[in-house]
Amino acid sequence: MNVMITDMSDDLDTTVQGIQIAITLFLLVMAALMIPGGKLTDRYGRVRLFRLGLAVYAVGAVLSAVSPGLGLLILGNSILEGVGTALLIPPVYILTTLLFTQLTSRARAFGAISAMGGIGAAAGPLIGGLITSAISWRAAFGFQALVVVTIVVLSRKIVDPLPADPGREFDLRGAVLSALGLILLVTGILAADQNIWLTVALMAAGALVIVAFFASVRAKERAGKEPLLSTALFRNHTSNLGLVTQNTQWLILLGTSFTVASYLQVVRGYDAIQTGIIFTAATAGLLVSSLGAERFARRRAQRTLILVGFVISVVGIAVLIALVKASSSAWAFVPGLLLIGFGLGGMLTPSVNIVQSSFGEELQGEISGLSRSISNLGSSLGTAIAGTIIVAGLSTGAYAAAMASLGVAAVIGLAAAWFLPRETSRATRLAASTEAAPLGTG
To answer: What are phi and psi of 124, to 5 degrees?
Structure first.
């Protein structure tokens, strides 16, 4: 949708900010419902929830394609596609963890998933731009529905390794509190360019609701009941740091995508396909580093890969700001986007593997939901923070300020990665080297 901003806002009689709200709400609905989605897999089964999520997503895509205005677009894209994604993503990570039991085979599987996720996020602008320019932005949503149908057909052979437990308790109060808290926090950021006091009030309310959520979780555990999330998830030092790196990675990727796309279309006047072509630089960077992820994992510790990834991303952001300021050429965007894509592609897989492998089988539903929620919260925060800055004043200065905010996030991620335990990373690398030997020359 980032490359369709101008086309969609004109066709739906809305503004750039209207499309930004739709994009951010989609990401926010995902983040808010990902934890309940992960928990529901235990009750209804992973494969069943995966297919239900696909069906809900397809309905949302069709509604988005025929929407006459922003309201129906938000219902179809932001709400239904967001709900569908929140239902289908946790089963993917849970099934991967359950079906690939060895550390290195699991790392290889997560590498493929993370690579495709990152490449998809980076390639989306080009695909969207091509469809929008050749047909219309509405056809892009129709294309999504066709992809979903294909996945449903291909998923018929997937077998759930664990039976569903219909009697499993579901913490409805916890689900409502966690979702409401995240919604209030991100909505507060979106309101920053309208009313600073409203922003403060919304974010304060969000923080209070999150505190109430954790109080509810502890109360349920003390009563011997099953909460939405186990507090054991937050007592794992390695997992907590890994979640911070995941959050900042997706914040940078989606924040960069929205900021650069908005600037190219509104300030530079580029169309959808031109914007998408420029973004192929980020796609190329992601593809190269993702394809080399397995080889990198055998030679370097996961902690090292994440550290290097953040350093490259920070350099990429600095290059992107400097070259765009110095030149009006479209080529000025390429080196920075290439570096950002390469840096992110190299650390997406180790971050996911560190988090998922920190817990046993009994907590996979919860940690998968939490992990995806944290990642999607990063995506919504990236679009909200950087988007609010650039929409408030579409100019070169606002562009630089928005990208600088993403640079600050990258530094925070770098700091979190620095404190990841070295021992865990070394053990993982050793296991990867040992198991990989039969696949090579000896």
So the answer is: -50, -45
Among 45, 154, 121, 147, residue whose Cα is nearest residue 90: 45
Helical residues (DSSP H) of 357-421, grouped into ranges: 364-392, 396-418
Query: Which of 380, 356, 331, 322 is CA-nearest to residue 105?
Result: 356
Rounded distance between C-alpha atoms, residue 15 and residue 4, angstroms: 12
Give, as one character, the DSSP assignment of residue 358: T
Taking phi first (over 0 means left), then psi (-120 to 50 degrees means alpha), and beta for anything else, what does residue 13 get? left
CA distances from 395 to 259, 267, 380 (A): 11, 7, 22
| Distance between CA atoms of residues 161 and 306, nearest Å | 31
Q: What is the mean pLDDT of each run of 10 residues along the chain (442 residues)?
A: 82 84 83 80 86 94 93 93 90 82 71 71 76 88 92 87 78 87 81 76 90 90 83 85 92 87 82 80 80 70 89 94 85 91 85 80 70 79 79 69 91 93 52 32 29
